[in-house]
Amino acid sequence: MTEPVPLLAILERNYFQLFELPEQFPLDQSVLNDKYLHLQKVAHPDRYATALARERVMAGQLAAYANEAYHVLKGDLSRAQYLLQLTEGASAQQGTSVTEPAILMEQMELREQLEGISQSQNPLLAIDQFANDITVKTQKLKQEFGESFSRKAFEHAKRIVNQWQFFDRLKQEVDDLAAELEEGN
Hints:
Number of strands: 0
Order of helices and strands: HHHHHHHH
Largest sheet: none
CATH superfamily of the largest domain: HscB, C-terminal domain
Mean pLDDT: 88
CATH architecture of the largest domain: Up-down Bundle
Strand content: under 5%
Number of domains: 2
Structural class: mainly alpha
Radius of gyration: 21 Å
Distance between the termini: 64 Å
CATH topology of the largest domain: Monooxygenase
């Protein structure tokens, strides 16, 4: 029979280690969910009702750490950023600018397209098509990141994450505009 791992040792693990997952981009969400639920049971306050105050505090810290880790690993972009942070010691910071001219032009054109949607003949159809285009581009970036990261091409992976962040923000703006357009109809 193995000894239970002390809570303090668990809190020193990175998010992948916490859930006993390989440090890679592809992730089985059902495995992550199962391991998260298991950790939540382990750290549940009822299990520590009669424990020392220190153990109760540590269990609460474990639950909070597991929540944070779960939300980071659950999201594709946040998981990609975290992987870069682990490998490079510094994350692809949100708001890092893209300096490649072709990418900057594409971003400017996409912003102009988004601004013109409300003036189009059928704005709801236009926003739907635009959202689909963004989804396709995001899926392509996700695939490119996975390939770059697995080849250990971290600089390229970082550039992909920077582009991906733009599309993530743009998708939020698209969702906001779609909600406004639907309210107007």
